Amino acid sequence: MTAGTPFLQVRDLKIHFPTDDGLVRSVDGLSFGLERGRTLGIVGESGSGKSVTSLGILGLHNRRNARVSGEIWLDGKELVSASADEVRALRGQKMAMIFQDPLSAMHPYYTVGQQIVEAYRVHNKVTRKQARQHAVDLLGKVGIPQPDRRVDDYPHQFSGGMRQRAMIAMALSCDPELLIADEPTTALDVTVQAQILDLMHKLQQEFNSALIIITHDLGVTAELSDDVLVMYGGRCIEYATAREIFQSPEHPYTWGLLGSMPRMDRPVAERLTPVKGSPPSLINLPTGCAFHPRCVFEERTPDGLGRRVLPELAEAGPGHLVRCHLPAAQRRQIWVDEVKPKLEAS
Amino acid sequence: MITYIIRRLMAALLLLLVVSAATFSIFFVVPRLLGNSPETLAVRYVGRTATPETIRQVADSLGFYDPVYVQYLNWLKGIFVGADFDTGAGIERCPAPCLGYSFIDKQPVLPELLERLPVTLSLAVGAALIWLVFGIATGVVSALRRGSLLDRSAMTISLAGVSLPIFFTGMVTLLLFSYQLEWTASGGSFTPFTENPAEWAYNLLLPWTTLAFLFSAQYARLTRAGMLETMGEDYIRTARAKGLTEKTVTVKHGLRGALTPILTIFGLDFGLLLGGAVLTEKTFSLPGLGHYAITAIPRNDLPAVMGVTLVAAVFVIVASLIVDLLYAVVDPRVRLN
Ligand SMILES: Nc1ncnc2c1ncn2[C@@H]1O[C@H](COP(=O)(O)OP(=O)(O)O)[C@@H](O)[C@H]1O
Ligand code: SF4
Ligand SMILES: [Mg+2]
Question: Quick one: which H or E segment has residue A204?
């Protein structure tokens, strides 16, 4: 990571939920940094703790049922120890979120325009008319045709793609410096998906904000992200530039994700070979390497370490972090000799 | 929208016809089926002391020998053009709209109903205001503090509220606040609002609270359930992500979402109450529509009972029409057609 403290710096973030069945360790020691104008992709299967992480950064967990520890520095201010009101004042203003499934994330009883400017009106002193104009401008900016008319429509009158655009407009309402998009395109079909990703890229360049894109689909991050953080069982298992993640990934789980990546040049049926086995329980994570029950290379880890000892997140190259017991040289060998050829052949 | 309203109004009229025919059958035909002859029915109106000749005469002039549908149509006709009734002691005019003539009171029914309506209306409006404010507030607080001592006590009390009959709670409040503490009137008297608002409220305070207690309990539970549901919705998380205060999130987003079903139930409850809050009016001896109805029943004053029933039906039907129209205003996803 870069020298000095980046615009957003997360250090050893832990988010645990005590439940009747036991302690759910949804996020367990996550660290990363992000500068303005840069995009970080957080990738992992569903249930790996991605949404919990993003809600944690925005301070949206109920302090009564979530235990949050670690540090979240946003532009020099620490958020985990800050009061609820201090964090609230930053929400919507300095940091904003684009949610998955805009139909349920928008209130059915208020117009799109009202919902877009709600944050704007809370954080700025403006008249109703100015606010409305602001909503129209934003809707135009995110590519809604006839924004001055659509601004008074209700969410259910928008199509899925338009709704996601409106959701983006809502998040941009106060020019946030940190924007988190949680599965922004999951509910959309492929062509609309591409348009939305384009739009987000364009807007990010324009606003020079720090962008976190959360997705279970590496393909979504491929185009947009500068860096990629791969999450498994609430922890980071690989962190690298997007280029390295695609060209020289080092973690067996990342290899699996690459294999399951939807590819536009293949028919649908051939595209998906999901990682075998199911995601781990966050209450009883497997001992040792959390991925070991599903890892085809587990028996190659020296001394059966994979089953017994949690691997450290170690530097495998400049800015490239990997959590795996296999010696780096051996990993690269496996990637080049065994995995890469198979991915290319499929 | 306009065509929808017209269609709904037509449907409402039709429904009223059906209701009136059904009520008519129940009150006029069923006694016949139970073996009452036209003469025994007529006796109820003119009294046992009349000669068989007068009884037959009255039964005839009241149309008791006609087929049922003719009787019903005559009754309907009365609504539009009025009717004349032979009481045996002379002809009484019941001007249009004539909902029937009470031979026991020797009065047309409608003016009697209109005279009692303000009582029932006062009772319903006051109680509704109290229970809406109190019930919804309790429900919201209970939902936000789910599982707390406050929530559990509120829900226990409201369980009592929904299950205790009104004559019981009414008696208890009467004993406590009126006879023991002497804070409030003991019922039985009604002062019109236009005459003396303070006295109006003072006299109604106890019936209001008793009735409101019953409904508050129900509305608190409804609101609580609704709030628990809406506060778990995704749009609440979105509202919080905007940096809105918890109060705005709760009221503007949460309560707004939970209120819609409550509106429907409120409309129907209120419509029903306007037809007469029978038990409350009885318990506190308030001369309202409900009181009128239950006095009429043991006296076999069929036209009176029939009149109240019909008026009550009108209130319920109108209330449900208003609720439907309001629903489209309150929930933009509802299209009227
Ligand atoms: N409030 C909560 N209480 C208990 N467990 C939770 C809570 N929120 C999330 N979790 C659990 O945390 C895990 C990670 O969830 P999430 O971050 O939503 O995954 P994803 O990576 O699919 O976004 C899931 O197993 C989920 O059940
Ligand atoms: S540590 Fe062992 S089990 Fe875990 S990913 Fe690496 S090789 Fe697989
Ligand atoms: Mg998620």
Answer: helix A190-207
Q: Do B257 and A99 touch (CB under 8 A)?
A: no
Residues of B in contact with A106 (CB under 8 A): 235, 238
* Pocket residues: Cβ below 6 A from ligand 1: A 17, 19, 24, 26, 44, 46-52, 65, 282
Of all protein residues, the one whose alpha carbon is nearest to atom 16 of ligand 1 is A49
Tell me, yes or no, whether B36 lies in a domain. no
Q: For residue A231, list its beta bridge partners.
A: A236
Q: Which amino acid is located at B113 in the chain?
A: L
Q: What three-state secondary structure class fits B48?
A: coil
**CB distance B331–A108 less than 8 Å?**
yes
Torsion angles phi and psi, residue A74, rounded to 5? -120, 110
Tell whether A17 is covered by a domain. Answer: no
How near does any CA of chain A get to the CA of B229, in Å?
13
Q: Is A230 in the pocket of ligand 2 (CB under 6 A)?
A: no
Residues of A in contact with B253 (CB under 8 A): 107
Return the sign of the alpha-carbon dihedral for residues B95, B97, B101, B107: negative
CB B280 within 8 A of CB B107: no
Is B21 within a domain? Answer: no
Ligand in nearest proximity to the CA of A42: 1
Please report the ipTM that was assigned to this predicted complex. 0.91
Ligand 2 near A249 CB (within 6 A): no
Domain that holds residue A115: 105-175
Query: How close B148 gets to chain A, by Cα (Å)?
Result: 13
Inspect the interface and report whether the beta carbons of A99 and B241 lie closer than 8 Å. yes
In chain B, the number of structural domains is 1
Q: Is A34 helix (H, G, I), strand (E, B) or coil?
A: strand
Domain boundary among A175, A197, A224: A175
Residue B34: Cβ-neighbour burial (10 angstroms; 0-12, 13-18, 19+): exposed
pLDDT digits (tens, 9 = 90+) for B160-204: 888 888 778 888 878 777 777 777 666 677 888 888 898 898 889
Give the global pTM.
0.86
What is the spatial distance between Cα B140 and Cα A273, in angstroms, rounded to a whole number? Answer: 48
How confident is the model over B54-63, as pLDDT tens digits? 888 878 877 7
Q: What is the pLDDT of residues B283-314, one digit of tens each?
A: 888 999 999 999 988 887 888 888 898 899 99
CA angle B79, B80, B82 (to 5 degrees): 70
Helices (H), A58-126: 84-90, 102-105, 112-123
Residues of chain B positioned with their CB less than 8 A from the CB of A121: none
A46 part of a folded domain: no
- Compute, in angstroms, the gap from residue A26 CA to the centroid of ligand 1: 6
Q: Which of residues 311-330 of B touch A (CB under 8 A)?
A: 330
Contact (Cβ atoms closer than 8 angstroms) between residue B45 and residue B87: yes
Residue B240 in contact with partner chain A when CB distance is under 8 A: yes
**CATH number (domain holding residue B183):** 1.10.3720.10
In a domain, A93, yes or no: no
A163 lines ligand 2 (CB under 6 A): no
Counting Cα atoms < 13 Å in the Cβ hemisphere of B167 gives 5
